[in-house]
Amino acid sequence: MIYNTTFDLCAVIIYLFTLYYVITKKNTHKAQNKIFLFIILNGIICSLTDITNATILNYLTENPSVERLFVFRAILQATMYIYTVTHNLLPAMFFLYTLEVTNKNNSQNRERFKLLAMPLVLSITFIALNPFMHGVFYFDETLTYHRGVFMYGLYITGIFYIIATLYFVIKFRADIPNNKNATLTLFIVTTFIGSMMQLVFPQILLELFVESIAFLCILFTIENDDEIYNGITRIYNRRAFLSDTASAFDSHDKRLLLVLKLTNLRYYQSVLGISFTNDVLRNIASKLIEVSETTDVYDCENGNFAVLYPANNSNRINKLEDTLSEIFSKGWEDKNITMHFKTLQYEITLPDDIDNLESLVSLIDTETDHARAVGKSTCIHGKEISFLQREQKIERAIQKALDNKSLKVYYQPIWDKETNKIHSAEALVRLYDEELGFIPPDEFIPIAERNNSISEIGEFVFEQTVRMFGEKNVHQYGIKFIEVNLSPVQFMHNNLADTFRTIMEKYEVNAPSINLEITESAAINDSDSFVQTMQKLRNMGFTFSLDDYGTGYSNASHIFNLDFDIIKLDKSILWKADQKASAKIILRNTIQMIKEMNLKIVMEGVETDSQKQAVSNLGCDYIQGFYFSKPMEADRFIDYCKKFNKL
């Protein structure tokens, strides 16, 4: 029989191309990638030995009287053993590859999979004993190739792993994208067809060529993992992190996690520009890979990085924590610029410290004030992350309060300097929970913004305020309007104006009775939709206040670009003015600028008579703060207005 090696040669070319592509892309980070690389190398060796065997046998067939058969025998024996081992490894290695793709090769399943390795161990044993027993194959005196009885055992082993692979592909198809699932299935089908064709046409060495084509498909689908890399830092992205940690939670596979948060990244982005800070983030990512001694490093966006280790690497994660603390304590230098990043590190054991993906994502995404509070880089370990549990309780408390309509709306009076009367008030939401007690607004409002319940809270406060204004007819007590806060999330709703109109009509209250407050941080988002929504509300008769002016975002362009009636100065400006002469100059000039623009000014946070006199003399129109009153419930507010305004 003359063997046709053309397809084997094509297989070698395809395998070599695949190998070159994998190496040049440096795509060998994960166990899945390493197994794929091993399979490709295995395929190259298998194809070359098959070509060698076929070439020798073809030569002997055409030259039956050739001398020195012992040389050919030695070469054939060696290459056939190599071919048999590598070809027998292929189904088992592809089975292991499938386990990695479906994320089932974890510690929980590892003992079970050891049993699945037994057929491969038996096959290798048969091959190892073949020189003594000739049970797998042998060459007779004329170098004719013969299969032994154990060869059928190798076939059975291959079939076993193909069936096992197909089983996992079908059972866990939901764990991998459809295109990758289709590729795995296609591989099994095509290799099976290739094997059958090889049996029908034994002289055409077609099987390895078909397999190489199938692996080429895998290269450009499953192994093409650009979708899980961050485009800026070129490390694994948020999607990859969520996938890997979700798999760990699902399998109860214990992992060690270190989260690094650059808490003041936005400051450097605003000062140095996005392009420059992107270069810095890229260099930080490279440093993380270097010092962590692992490739499981993730960019979770917004200056948040994560490093995953197996559970038995506590020494490595402790060393990494110390190294990062030392690096950032010295300041990060890039292009002759030194940046003093405030960092927050969480060292967590999954699932002991955090047992679900939602809590982990919340931990990473939360813009915590912890680092700013301590004023330096900080490390938090394991069970110290108790604030996550509190946050979850607060989320439940918010939802419970919304369901039961048990949120309270309080009103803080605002004094008018010109009339010496209470002129208006600010509506403020309060949350009290049976388990947690009173929850401060600056704690539950950010949580409500993150879990998207802020819109429902905002609508509740708006309706309660309008209802109170209408039912109690507060105009008769000298109240011109009540201020209601609007969140940026509410502005994203296209039907906001219609919702407010329905509520106003329900309680027969006119729009000018409500002044809508927008925080300065929200006003930064002066997008077209934001401006359009604001204009719709103004056309209905609502007036607007810019709240918290001077909290760090201060930019007069917000006043120019958006149509505000009142500017509310944040209390931080006032309190700093009490302490520093320079801050007093800033306060005076800020008030003067706003007054020259013919806008009204509310000074927030006034608590003493000296503060009241000072801001009054500087030209503030209205004053709000504890000097007059803390926020109070509606009935007490009405009584206070009656008494203060002498009605």
Keywords:
eight-stranded mixed beta barrel; elongated; TIM Barrel; single chain; alpha/beta; Rhopdopsin 7-helix transmembrane proteins; 647 residues; 18 strands; Alpha-Beta Plaits; five-stranded mixed beta sheet
Could you characterize what this model shows?
The protein is of the alpha/beta class. Helix content is 57%, strand content 15%. The chain has three domains: 6-219, Rhopdopsin 7-helix transmembrane proteins, CATH 1.20.1070; 228-384, Reverse transcriptase/Diguanylate cyclase domain (Alpha-Beta Plaits, 2-Layer Sandwich), CATH 3.30.70; 391-644, TIM Barrel, CATH 3.20.20.450. It has an eight-stranded mixed beta barrel with strand order 10-11-13-14-15-16-17-18, surrounded by six helices. Helix 1 packs antiparallel against helix 2 and helix 3 (69-101) runs antiparallel to helix 5 (118-133). Mean pLDDT is 86; it is low at 369-375.
Write out the CATH superfamily name of the largest domain.
EAL domain
Uncertain stretches of 5 or more adjacent residues: 369-375
Radius of gyration: 36 Å
Mind summarizing the main beta sheet?
Answer: 8 strands, mixed, barrel
Q: Could you tell me the strand content as a percent range?
A: 5-15%
Predict the CATH topology of the largest domain.
Answer: TIM Barrel
The CATH class label of the largest domain is Alpha Beta
- Enumerate how many helices there are, as a single number: 26
List the domain count as a whole number: 3
Sheet with most strands: strand arrangement:
10-11-13-14-15-16-17-18
Backbone shape: elongated
CATH-derived architecture of the largest domain: Alpha-Beta Barrel
Mean pLDDT: 86
Q: Structural class, judged by helices and strands? A: alpha/beta
What's the end-to-end separation, in Å?
116 Å
DSSP strand tally: 18
**Percent range for helical residues?**
55-70%
